[in-house]
Amino acid sequence: MTTTTTAPAAGVVAPRQLPPVRRPSLLRLTGVELRKLADTRAGRWLLITIGLVVVAIVTLLLIYAEDSEQTFFTFFVTSLLPVNVLLPVLGILSITSEWSQRTALTTYALVPRRERVVAAKLIAVVLAALASLLVILAVGSVGTLVADATGGAGTWEVDATLIVNAAIVQVAGVLMGAAFGLLLLNPPLAIVGYLLLPTLWSVLGELVRPLRGAAGWLDTSRTMEPLFTSHVTGEQWGRLVVSLLAWMVLPLAAGLFRTLRREVS
Predict the structure, then answer these.
(1) Cβ atoms of residues 120 and 98 within 8 Å
(2) Whose CA is closest to 161, among 100, 101, 104, 232?
(3) What is the largest CA-CA distance in the chain?
């Protein structure tokens, strides 16, 4: 038995073998998500607002604060408070924009493994939170120089531990916002839920006597307060971890499960 092969007909071009498609790296996905933070009007104005709020606070302190209070420590700590309120909203918008802007179909078609997209979004908002800390440090430094030149205290005394603690607070806050965004997948609902539920729990912890003990471990406004000082005890760290498990880790896990299973339409 002989085997024969048929030569390709003249003029017929053999199909070209395409190179394998490489999936985008996590670094590239993170860069895309960072760009998305400023692509939408809401995200862009929120970033601008964070910068303007820091500048406004330092300016007001330079105008109205006592000379003895015009220090780097005062500028830094006072600027942290409003930024810590705005950063979780940035985390929420980063997560929910895929559904509110109806881009989830395109995003998850290009990157079918949704957990990689979520991971890139979380990394992006963490980097944004750390960048906001650098803005606070920069504006606070300018304010201190101005105070020193205009007769204010202008002192630079601040414990480096306080800056590290501030970074923890900001990262935890933006991740809590992202967790609520993953869980609810709706911008207004996630923002209201993030602002209302912890506040309601805090009020109940103050008013209802049997809840006061648990509130000391689950109220993030209490457990994060020691981080604004330069010394945190072991028990205070334990309370912080427990509260973050309740308000950050559990919503993140539940939200990731929902995001991975939700039908995109």
Answers:
(1) no
(2) 232
(3) 105
